[in-house]
Design a protein that fits this description.
The protein has 838 residues and is of the alpha+beta class. The chain has four domains: 188 residues; 202 residues, no CATH class; 216 residues, no CATH class; 65 residues. Helix content is 56%, strand content 11%. Strands 1, 2, 4, 5, 6, 8, 10 and 11 form an eight-stranded mixed beta sheet that branches. Strands 3-7-12-9 form a four-stranded antiparallel beta sheet, with no helix packed on it. A two-stranded antiparallel sheet has the order 13-14. Helix 29 runs antiparallel to helix 30. Keywords: Membrane, Signal, Transmembrane, Transmembrane helix.
Length: 838
Amino acid sequence: MAIAFGLALVSLGAIVWCTVAARPVAEPAQPKGTAGPNPWVAAATRADPDVQWARRAETKVMISRAGRADLEPVPDGRLDPRQRHVKVTIEHRLHLARRDTLIEALRQGSGFPGTLQQVTDAAFGAIKVDGPGLAPTTRLAPVLTSTGDMTTAQFTVTVLRQLRPDQLLKLNFEEPKAFPLIVTGRTISVLPGEWSVLRLEGITPEREEQERLGFTVGAYPVSMTLAPDSFGFPDVVVEEDFSWATALGVLTAIALLVFLVRALGAGWWARLANRELFVGLALAAPALLIPLFAEDWSAVAYVILFIAVPLLALRHAGRVLPTSPPWDTRDLLIVTGAGVLVGLGMLSWSWLHGQLSGQALLLGGAVAAVAAAAAAVAFSVDLGVRPVVVRLAVLSAEAALGLLALALWLRALAGGVYPPDSTRLVLALSWALIPIAAMAVATKQWKRSAVVGAVLISLLVQGWPTEWLDAGSWSLAVPQDEPRIGSLELTPIVRGVLGLLLLGFVMLVLRLRRLGGQLSAVDNPVAESTMICVLMVLYITPSGSTTLADIDVPLPLLAITSLVAWGSAQWLLTGPRVAIPEPMDLEEHRALVRAALHKRLLLVSEQELYRIGRARIGAGELTMSDFDQQRNTLEAAMNLHGRHPETAFATSSGCTPWYNGVHAFTVSLLLSLPFALVYGWPEGVDLTSFIFDGRYLITLPAFGFLFGYFYPRVRGTQPMTKALHLTAAALLTELSGYLSTLAEPDIGAFDKAQVVAIVVGQVMMVCVGLGLFWEWRTMHLAGEPWARVRNLRSIRSLAAPTLALVLAAGTTAASSAAGQTVDRILKGDQIVTIQTPR
């Protein structure tokens, strides 16, 4: 034991020695533009006085709207479509005599392109544009033009900015940086484009027109402020005492909370472990908002989300599950082996960036691993089981290497220079403990596949593979903006919170699966509340606007769609119902369907007897006694089958609610996919933003899932009548999202009709198609041909599907025409577009 403890101390000492001996990693190299001498300053002092007086500087500033080509190099996550994208093009022209020494310095281009900024700032002064930058300032190569005794040097600078629709644009013209001055005066022209000059500071215009402002300044700073042409300043800003948007948002939150409590059920709240979990999450939730109010305390939010909440989830899973995790030594070897692979990457980074020399790293790592393995052998040699001893030795060596890599990473983290994505990786692995525990609780067992899936999902929550595989993110931390969803900056903690919301939604769906394994779930209020929660979450839409087939549609705070989804779902499930004998298996379903088909045959036969009897009795071909005899025979047969309404086509067909719901969801999704060509495919910088952007693809399929899950309770007695009721509920919910569009005075009636046609066409296509499929499926499960209930040669029988196809074709035509009217739908810049959510 003394030898074992001694070897363990040697291993630990090697790790401590490597950590103490590690040097701080140097900061990333500064851009070349900030280094190097300015060749113009030296050349300016050598010129003759006559040549110096011949210099003239002109600057033209052009302000325009940034186009698609301008924004193409900007990362998607940084663009906020709801804001104004401004392009400022600056053209500097310096007129020089042919014998000016500055021309030769310019032609030599010493330090170009790194010193281009120094050259322009020295001669013309820097021009600063307020507002968040979309991309780094770009500078074109200087262009020299010689005519006669004069040479003109032109420098072009492009600046991209992202501003709120009502934000002012401020331009600061700073004094030239060269001493002595290269030019004594500067002539500046500003072409404001869609902007109007609001304020001038230190400027006396020499040319003042609507489209151009010209002035001359010396070696002193001046500034101007511009306002958008379409923006007006109200004389009095009236604070609204009541806001429908806020009221609807609060009402939606209350309704969601009520249904969530009901969805969990009284049995869930009765368990002490569940109440402790709820209290823990309730205490952690406010702390996650700390970064919004105090950025200096953001570390507290990170500790709570990535340490406290995962430990709370694991503790809850350990108390709820009846058995402990079935992990063995092989599992530990696999986990530590994966950790060693990641650790080797960190050790390679430490060597490449000089944190430790290669010799010291190899020596320290070898000593730590070998001593740890030897200590494990010394501890376990008394067991006498060779496989166990070997596994413990390998496990100890892997743990030592992983601990060494972790220690060096913490040392680099303390120095502020470390691989950027290494932090996200550690946070993702910590966050993965939450879905691991959640899946264990949902399935009532620990599964290795669930652990692997949870880790992969956690990595996707923190970024797409393209983001993880970016070589620069594993080099040195370079200051850069985080991607955004609208105005929400996707920091790791924001991504983690969004991942928690997505996980909560998945848990609701898994609860529906667990409850839907029995036929009684159709009438279970817990299942109904869970389904309504799912629908309401899918239909929550934040403020902004949406693009529907190239039509920019303004949207308010659309909590109203969530409330309408709640109301329509309640209406769909609370209609009048007749007593339905539910078949327990497919054999009972076949018997019910065949009895219903026989009864339909008798009803059709009775109608046919009355139809042809009138003509045949009048013609003397049929006597009244024969007619009465046939009628009595049919009535006796119908009395034998009962006079109650037919209900065989309103049952669950002997299948569980979850099974029916999945089939209905799948068919609805397939019918909805063609409309992705109208709305556009979802996009996102990570898993949660991608799913959030793609909700429009599963909102109608969610209604289809409700249709299948609660099919016996849906209004109607036949698949098609139930489908028509579903159409009414889904159409009301979908159209409620476009109330502001239908009331918008700047949008013409034809364009409003296009929006309605698109929505109606999609809803009809999905719901009517689902009804036809359900009718076929009911007959298929009963082993009967579909033609016995729907005659494909009858116009009346094909009326509903024909109407759906016509509306779908109209939708396609409307969306095609909508692309040509986008410029005249919304006027001005008060209303902007956002691609997500739809």
